[in-house]
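Record 1 of the preview.
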Amino acid sequence: MPEEPSLKQKTVKGVFWNALGNFSVKGVQFVVMIVMARLLTPKDYGLLGMLTIFIAISGSFVSSGFGSALIRKQDRTNADCSTVFYFNIVAATFFYILLFFAAPYIADFYNEPQLTDLTRVISLTLIINGFNLVQESLMTAKMNFKTTAKISLITAIASGAVGLTMAFNDFGCWALVGQQISSAIFRVLLFWYYSKWRPAFVYSWKSFRELFGFGSKLLFSGLLDTTYNNIYPLIVGKLYSAATLGFYTRAENFAALPSSNVTNIIQGVSYPALCTLQNDDARLATTYRKFIRISAFVIFPMMMGLAGCAKPLVITLVGEKWSFSILLLQIICFRMMWYPIHAINLNLLLVKGRSDLFLRLEIIKKCIGVFFLVVSAPFGIEAMCVGGIFSSIFCLVVNTYYTGKIIHVGFFRQMGDMSKTIILSLAMGTLVFCISTFCPIQYLYNLIIGIIAGTLFYIGMARMLRFPELKELIELRKNKEKANK
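->
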């Protein structure tokens, strides 16, 4: 059938450009972060971390799930897109004003007076980001990840330059604010430059009701997810200090480099790809399981390797002053390794148009997460991180329940698909940890040897044991080369 090669070609290209964009952007951001972490203090990062939950929640209201609704709708019109555009601008302005007047109360909550001005400035990103959601959604729907990768890379380089310049000139935490504001501005300008779409002078209540009918459930589930994901910084900042929160956010940022990259790649490519198969359950299940296996094969060793070499990595890159982040990073890696698997399971519900189940799952999972948070919080930040591991695993069981009902690929089948990868990744992580901990050499050499040994061990054992995921990755690369010819 001609449709299958077309879908495969689009998916391969999508994976390639989405991966290239994410890893190149994160690579630039990682380098910028390393330099800035040496110039700034844990408290500087902690102050910005205290505001994350307020900006993130407001951003969820601004988008309101309209981006996913536009991507899913195959017969979207210019009226649909224009309606979403104008709604985003109005919503963003409303929430900026709300945060502007709430800023003094946020500062009082944390007992950090300088948060008043920080809140009022950083909140401008809400209005700026509201101008490019439609353009970005349309490019994603067309799987035009080459252009989005280019935009993201240029933005990362330009905003990184702004942040570094301010950090070198002793702006402190304002260097982080400048980086985020400039990132939002560059991103909007580039999306308007590369996108052919422009808003028309039309607002359709019919389009709003149709898109919001789907997106509203994503809004509420997104609010739950955003609130829960940022409740740890909120509690750490309130119960401990800005410096302690800085250590936590640094550990989470290190762990997020591989985890978030793979999750973004999988979500960005799997959702539009699976949407084209939404009416063919057999092909949907086959493609879905392939995404699961390949995701685990890539992300699990990355996270276990990161946990194993955490000590030499942190000390080599950002210095001894960040040493408290090492243990937190090792624990968080075991939690965040499951994020891409969560993302694929949730994408299936969106593909099937079951945003109601998506919302129901989010409510259940957040109740589980809050339970583990309440139980672990009295025992310190390390215990909170351990509780996050148990929460992530329990939530995976919940996530896979409806997947099993809809296409008969439930928890045990998915764990069976990933079991060999899990065992091999743990073995590799243990090897890297032993090298990083017990080799009596400099941290830099420990890091280099650990990475090389772990990579050779993992790939070598995968080839020896004939992992099908390795063969599938090789085929993806060959298909990409054919697609370019």
